[in-house]
Amino acid sequence: MFDALQLDPVAFTIPIGEGLAIYWYGILIAIGIAIGAGWAGRAIEKRGESSDQLYNGLLIVVIAGYVFARLGYVLQDEIANPGPQYNTLWEVINLRAGGANILWGFIGAAVVGLIFLRWQKLSFWHYADVAGPTLLIAQAIGRWGNFINQELYGPPTTASWGLLINTPNRIAPYNDLVTYPAETRFNPTLFYEFLALLIGFLLLTYLNKKYQEQWKPGTLFSIFLIWWGANRAWIELFRPDQPKLGETLISFSMILSLGIAGVGVYLLLQRLGIIATTAASKRRVHKPKRQRTAETE
Q1: What is the C-alpha to C-alpha distance for residues 147 and 249, in angstroms, rounded to an integer?
Q2: What is the DSSP letter of 73?
Q3: Could you give the CA distance from residue 251 to residue 244 in angstroms, rounded to a whole number?
Q4: What is the pLDDT of residue 291?
């Protein structure tokens, strides 16, 4: 199914020094961000907010997201495989060396985004609502960069849509050609996630268009958290490259994904008024003190 779609990971090389390789992965990520930002700009204006402020914050949030994504990956890698893997600061922060965890990137970007919005005195929930679908479409397009790099594949499969993975791109134990011959096909995990992300984007944009006026700001963001977190959790079952808890099938990213989905459920219940917000729950009803009279004294 995918055999004819083979490309060199390097799109072109800029003649600087020994040559600066520009990868398809980076190009597709940039295209995804641009498409997502275009949709977000139009969506935020329909909410009466500023698209200029959105684009200003987007640059900061994207940079923060990549920094936290790399740091999160390194942290998980060190916990699962302790050793002298990262000896210098450059080895820790070098994204081009490979390795980034979008879940940690999202958390870091959300914190930085919250700080930016409060600094600019903007509505957090309106911007969060448009951020969810933006991330989904950007990540969906970026997943095809993983396909070109022959990464994000799952365990072996006999399905016709399985991927052929070149030996240099195989992780252990699949690089053992005796057990896993060259014709072995692997689950296209990246394609499973691409479908989940694309469907999520279409679903959220439909809900945004249909219920924007009726729903409380933040409702769409809550649904995004549930969809994104829950789907990433089951996708982790097809990610043998992810650090696991001992010999179990549970990965650090699966736990983090379920946590994100859980936060989404909590926020959705808040936004729908099913449970009280923290501020509301702290309010107390003050009853007037009973007047003392001669009869009660």
Answers
A1: 23
A2: H
A3: 4
A4: 52
